[in-house]
Write a structure and sequence with these properties.
Layout: H1 2-10, H2 28-35, E1 42-47, H3 53-56, E2 57-62, E3 71-80, H4 83-90, E4 101-102, E5 108-114, E6 126-129, E7 140-144, E8 148-151, H5 157-162, H6 166-176, E9 185-188, H7 194-205, E10 209-214, H8 220-230, E11 234-237, E12 258-261, H9 265-274, E13 280-283, H10 296-300, E14 305-308, H11 311-315, H12 323-335, E15 343-347, H13 351-358, E16 367-371
Parallel strand pairs: 9-10, 9-12, 10-11, 12-13, 13-14, 15-16
Antiparallel strand pairs: 1-2, 1-4, 3-5, 3-7, 3-16, 5-6, 6-8
Helix pairs in contact: 6-7
Length: about 375
């Protein structure tokens, strides 16, 4: 035992400073983690200028990175391609890294090695960046311990990789704008998105009904069935809502008190039409890149409120400390089978194919998640 303490001391680690690291846990992997001062070489998706992602991104080899005392080297396991990732590369997103930059903003990885001052993470732990941070599209990442949040390994990899952005957005929007009670109704467009799928299920858990709008496209009936299986009360295509007495489609459901818009244009107008007197529409995206146009009567006679939500602003505020318990709560729902959404795991070697799918080059596809 004395010789083990001596070895730890020679590596610059004080057992007294790390009481949560008992000597009984020391293994050959432990020494690998502390003794390595450099990360392995990494492969990364980089872009040196903003522009069309399929034209400006490329995969390159990166040299090893030195680990400082409080650094953790993480071997990435999986990371998604989100619309915000694409917008950052295009240069149209409000918060974006300085180029040259590595793509990606969330993901899950396994601790490969740790600096001498790291006490709360060990080699083999699964971690996610919380709040999300730039540069997850690479095989190895070195960042300070405070960046990483340890999670259980029994969560499916693809869910762990995508838990930070879309599910958290859905949860916050359901809780931050209107006090929802069991029996209330919400309405949303873009319902097949991951945020939309999460809204349906999280609302259902609260006893809240959902009316959902999807695009007119091939396979829309199949999409309706999938959303109904998640707990959606009603699902309509945009063309089905182009009727005079639109509210008759609600049947016995109460008029929606809260609406979510991620599309803009005419799809946003449909949400506004179905909101009840004094209702609120929250915009969190603009996939159609068309403006939200509101008739004067919606303000004067219906007293509607228009709000906006941006998760990054929320996570950069004093509320950021609340993210960890919320993420753990969502992961528990996943483990218990109460939250699920469609994804497609794609090998890192096929990144360009996954990117083309994420860009919508060949129709609609599930969320693309890169597996390293």
């Amino acid at each position: 035992m004395a010789s083990l303490r001596l070895t730890l001391r020679s590596l610059g680690v004080s057992h007294r400073c790390c009481p949560r690291f008992p000597l009984s846990r020391i293994t050959s992997n432990t020494f690998r983690g502390f003794a390595t001062n450099l990360s392995p070489p990494s492969k990364a998706v980089v872009y040196e200028q903003q522009g069309p992602p399929d034209q400006v991104t490329r995969v390159i080899d990166l040299p090893p990175v030195e680990l400082k005392a409080n650094d953790v080297c993480v071997k990435m396991l999986a990371a998604p391609i989100n619309p915000s990732d694409i917008n950052r590369i295009e240069g149209v997103y409000p918060a974006r890294p300085i180029v040259p930059a590595i793509g990606g903003h969330e993901g899950v990885g396994e601790v490969y090695s740790v600096g001498s001052g790291v006490c709360n993470l060990s080699v083999g732990d699964w971690v996610i960046p919380s709040p999300p941070s730039f540069g997850t599209w690479q095989t190895y990442i070195v960042k300070e311990e405070t960046v990483w949040h340890k999670i259980d390994k029994d969560v499916p990899m693809e869910y762990a990789a995508t838990i930070n952005v879309n599910p958290l957005t859905a949860l916050r929007m359901l809780e931050d704008f209107v006090k929802l009670n069991p029996g209330d109704t919400i309405i949303q467009n873009g319902a097949t998105s991951i945020v939309g799928q999460c809204v349906i299920q999280l609302a259902r858990i609260q006893g809240v009904h959902s009316v959902n709008i999807i695009r007119d496209r091939v396979g829309s009936e199949e999409a309706k069935g999938k959303l109904k299986n998640l707990g959606a009360d009603e699902v309509y295509t945009e063309s089905q809502l182009e009727v005079k007495n639109i509210k008759s489609l609600l049947g016995d459901l109460p008029e929606p008190i809260l609406g979510f818009n991620c599309v803009g244009g005419s799809a946003a107008s449909l949400v506004l039409k179905l909101l009840r007197q004094g209702g609120t529409m929250v915009t969190y995206g603009g996939m159609s890149r068309k403006p939200v146009t509101v008739p004067t009567s919606a303000f004067i006679f219906k007293d509607l409120a228009l709000r906006g939500f941006w998760l990054q602003k929320w996570t950069n505020s004093e509320k950021a400390k609340d993210c960890i318990p919320m993420i753990d709560h969502i992961l528990t729902l996943v483990k218990n089978g109460k939250l699920k959404y469609e994804m497609e795991l794609v090998p890192f070697e096929d990144f360009s194919t996954a990117l083309d799918k994420a860009l919508g080059k060949s129709g609609s596809h599930p969320k693309q998640v890169i597996r390293f």
